[in-house]
Amino acid sequence: MEIRIRNKIFPRKLSNLVAFWFLFLVIPIIFWFEIFIVLPTIHEPWSFGYLFHTIMGTFLLVNITSNLLAAVLVDPSIRGRMLEVPNPPDRWHLCAVCESFVPPRSWHCEDCGTCVLKRDHHCLFTACCIGHHNHRYFLVFLTHLFIATSYATYFNGSFVWRSWESFSWYSLLKLIFPMAVFLFDSSINQFYLTLYAINIAGIAFAGALLGYHLMMMYKGQVTYESANNVRIYDYGWKQNLKEILGERWYLTWIFPTLESKLPHNGIVWHTREQWMAEAQKHR
User: Is residue 84 packed enough to be buried (19+ CB in 10 Å), middle (13-18) or exposed (0-12)?
Assistant: First the structure.
C-alpha cells in the first residue's frame, strides 16, 4: 500500500500545539548548546575529538528531526483509502463515527477525527496518531533521542559542575528546579542549567517510552492490545521487529528515506496460527 502524506499537520488542541512547538524548537537549541558551548570546553576546536563528536552530534540531530518529521507527515489513517471488506468480515468492526467497516487493529482517534490503521496511540508531541505507516519513524526517533540526550548529558555533567557556585541553599534550588528559577534569574548560566535539566528530562522521557514500545514490539502488540492482553499477532520477536521497521530493519536506523518494505499492508492481518500455517507452506 502506498504511503500517503497528511494534508493537515498543525495541531488542533492547545496541549498538542504547545508540545509540538516545544519539541521542534528545543532540539536545535540543545544542539547549539552542545556543539558551540559545551564541546569547546572539553575538546580544542577543530581537534580530532571536537570534529568526531560534532559529526556524531550532527548525525543524531539529522535522524531525530527527519524521523520526527516523517512521523508527522506520513498518514496512517484510512482517510482516502479504498478498503475492500472481506466476506465474512472476520475481525473487522463498524466505526460509528466514520460510518464504515475498518480492519483489525484499526481504531478511531477523536483528536485526528478518523480511524487509523494498526493504531498504536495519539502522540502529544507529533500531534497525530502513530500507526502502521509511521510507527517505524516514531520508534527510530525515540531511539536516536534517547542516545542523543544520554550522550549530551555525559558531557554536560562536567560542564555544569565546573561552573558550580559555592554551596548555598539558593544554588541548590537552582540545580533542582532550574526551569522555575529561570523565570526569576535569566542569567546565561541559569539558561545553561535549564538546558541541562531538559536533557535529563529527555533521557527519562525517551528512555521510558522507548523501553515500553520495545517491549510491545517484542510481544507483537500495539497499546490497545497490550492493555487488553491481546497477543494473537505475535509472530516471534524477529518478525515482530520487521512488522514495524520493515524487511531491511537494519538500515532504518541510518536514515528515514532508506526503503524498508513492511510485510503487511495494514489492512489484512493474520493471526499467529494463520501466519505460522502460511510460513509452513512456503518452506
Answer: exposed
Question: Residue 107: which H helix or E strand, with range?
Answer: strand 107-109
State the catalytic residue, choosing from 115, 123, 128, 129.
123
Rounded distance, CA 67 to CA 23, Å?
13
Examine the residue annotation and report whether 123 is marked as an active-site residue of this protein: yes
Cβ neighbour number for residue 63 with a 10 Å cutoff:
21
What is the dihedral angle through the alpha carbons of 230, 232, 237, 243, rounded to the nearest 10 degrees? -100
Please write the tens of the pLDDT for every residue from 112-167. Answer: 999 999 999 999 999 999 999 999 999 999 999 999 999 998 888 878 776 655 55
Q: Is 194 helix (H, G, I), strand (E, B) or coil?
A: helix
The number of residues in the chain equals: 283
Element (H, E) at 95: strand 93-95
- Checking DSSP bridges between strand 107-109 and strand 100-102, what pairing results, if any? unpaired
C-alpha cell at 25: 524548537
pTM: 0.91
Q: What is the largest CA-CA distance in the chain?
A: 75
Cell digits for 283?
Answer: 518452506
| Whole-angstrom distance, CA of residue 50 vs CA of residue 57 | 10
More confident residue, 12 or 194: 194
Grade residue 179 by pLDDT with cuts at 50, 70 and 90.
low
